[in-house]
Amino acid sequence: MKYISTRGQSAASSFSEILLGGLAPDGGLYLPEQYPQFSDADLTAMRSMNYRELAFAILSRLVDNNDIPHTDLQAIIDKTYRADVYGYTRAGQSAEDITPTIKLEDNLYLLSLSNGPTLAFKDMAMQLLGNLFEYVLTKTGQTTNILGATSGDTGSAAEYAMRGKKGVRVFMLSPYQKMSRFQTAQMFSLQDDNIFNIAVKGVFDDAQDIVKAVSNDHTFKAQYKIGAVNSINWGRIAAQIVYYFKGYLAVTTSNDQKVSFSVPSGNFGNVCAGHIARMMGLPIAQLIVATNENDVLDEFFKTGVYAPRGAANTYQTSSPSMDISKASNFERFVYDLVGRDSARIRELWTAVDHGGKFDLNTEGYFDQVGDFGFVSGSSNHANRLQTIRATKEKYGVTIDTHTADGLKVALEKRDPNVPMLVLETALAAKFEDAIVEALGEVPERPASLEGLEDLPQKSTVLDANVDLIKSFIVANT
Ligand SMILES: *Cc1c(COP(=O)(O)O)cnc(C)c1O
User: Fold this and answer.
1) Rounded CA gap, 114 and 423, in Å?
2) Does residue 215 carry a pLDDT above 80?
3) 434 alpha carbon to ligand 1 midpoint, in Å?
4) Residue 205: is its pLDDT beyond 90?
5) Ligand 1: which of 402, 409, 427, 432 to mutate, most ligand atoms within 8 Å of CB?
6) Model-level pTM?
């Protein structure tokens, strides 16, 4: 399987060649040259597979045997998707399922994706990436210095995936004193030698700007082998495809049935994996894009106009991991929507990259959005609290704020005759303040994380200055 860029001007590359990078050299995003197809017989065979076998059945169609020998791929998958890595479970769930479901009522389920070490769905892909990075770097004798900016979830998932990995160092910038106490403790309590937490005096955008500035210094980037694990990384999307299959198989008994998914969305990475699963033949009815107050994606799916907003027009909400106004993976879907016309993508994103917008009504593309199953809706703070309360009262289940956005929109848009799986993208314990506001009680926390805030913490506080960050990297490599 070769990977091509949505902008059509980069050479086709193998999975391991694009694994360590982000954007293609032409500024586009990588996608498989064509999507592998899973037949009715394939789906039937999958019904008896565990998570590891299912992951291998799917990923082995996306990674060539002469790129990563499939026996090695199998070993990496087996090492990643273990019950002790994704070990948190609630009543009636088995950790062996890795992504167990919770039945709320007939045809309404949560798909638990947040039972990993940092209690958010990002662990599902990031843990695999950590093992793949170590494998590829060891094999080629290379090293990488991952540089990232985080407002909480991405940074912790990346650090827990990369800690102790050979050939990898992580330099993670976060806004000084602006993450939740839980998120800060999660990241700063890591004592591994290859993890460097840098608290930048400023806001998230200052940290993000520094990462961009360092990455745009091509000499520095090459000399210090600066890498990234942000949400456009193809390896992350690929790993996320697996649990759509797993969720489908968990709530159906025949391949004639369809299911729908509701996906709390920000950068469009998670729901993009659902789109690709559908393109590979998974019988999906609706793919619901659920946003919070930052509703740029809801606006597109309702009007056909994609108008990203700047940082100044991004609201801070109680589902903070979706506070995004430029969906970095959206280009992947639009590429398929416009019939994989890379010249068209270059035109559309020239406008976006210059702060503009585009309208897909003019060429009739927007009329086809429904053919891809997409439906959308948005949620706000009051909706979120109300949904958390109702879910607790009606089903006795405590959900987090992001999952609440997904459930709220799912209830509005679903066909009650079709099983609906709402993706649980984080556990409530991660966003304690909002849960206390909604329920008047502190959410349950996995036993392994009791007392997290009392552990010794390690971080370096620096001014928001590109040269200071570069010097810090130089001094620690
Ligand atoms: C990252 C994140 C999201 C958004 O996922 P995208 O792939 O960016 O759309 C939603 N919920 C939680 C809890 C997250 O951490």
Assistant:
1) 9
2) yes
3) 17
4) no
5) 402
6) 0.96
Nearest-angstrom CA–CA distance, 134 and 129? 8
- Within a domain: 142: no
Question: Rounded to whole angstroms, what are the CA distances from 400 to 92, 388, 425, 433?
Answer: 19, 7, 8, 11
Give the span between the Cα atoms of 170 and 126, in whole angstroms: 13
Residue 290 domain-assigned? yes
Q: Which atom of ligand 1 is nearest to the CA of 240?
A: 7
Q: Is residue 143 one of the residues assigned to a domain?
A: no
Q: Which residues of 131-166 are buried (b: 16+ CB within 10 A; e: fewer)?
A: bbbbbbbeeeeeebbbbbbbbbbbbbbbbbbbbebe
Give catalytic residues, as residue numbers. 122
Tell me how far the alpha carbon of residue 267 lies from the centroid of ligand 1, in angstroms: 7
Sheet containing strand 195-201, edge to edge, reads: 226-227, 144-149, 168-175, 195-201, 460-463
Tokens for 355, please give them.
């702060």
Query: The CATH number of the domain where 277 resides is what?
Result: 3.40.50.1100
Nearest atom in ligand 1 to the alpha carbon of residue 430 is 13
Give how far Cα 467 sits from Cα of 56, 171, 217, 473, 475, Å: 43, 14, 11, 10, 12
97 is written with which tokens?
A: 């399922």
Distances from the Cα of 52 to the Cαs of 59, 102, 107, 207, in angstroms? Answer: 10, 20, 26, 36
CA–CA separation, 248 vs 244, rounded Å? 6
Q: Which amino acid is at 358?
A: F
Burial 316-336 (b: 16+ CB within 10 A, else e): ebbbbbbbbbbbbbbbbbbbb
**How far does residue 398's CA lie from ligand 1's centre (Å)?**
18
DSSP per position, 427-451: -GGGGHHHHHHHHSSPPP--GGGTT
Look at the chain and report how many structural domains it folds into: 1
Q: CA 381, CA 402: separation in Å to the nearest integer? A: 11
- Domain region containing 335: 95-118+235-439
Ligand 1 atom at shortest distance from the alpha carbon of 157: 15
Q: Does position 311 have pLDDT exceeding 80, yes or no?
A: no
Q: Which amino acid is at 363?
A: E
Identify the pLDDT of residue 300: 97
Task: Specify the DSSP class assigned to residue 120.
Answer: B
Pocket of ligand 1 (CB under 6 A): 120, 122, 153, 231, 264-270, 321-322, 402, 425-426
Q: Which of 111, 267, 326, 384 has most ligand 1 atoms within 8 Å of its beta carbon, as the pocket-test mutant?
A: 267
Q: How big is the CA angle at 272 (ends 283 and 418), to the nearest 5 degrees? A: 30
Where residue 209 falls among pLDDT bands split at 50, 70, 90? Answer: confident
Q: How far apart are CA 142 and CA 474, in angstroms?
A: 17
- Asked whether residue 167 is assigned to any structural domain, the reply reads no
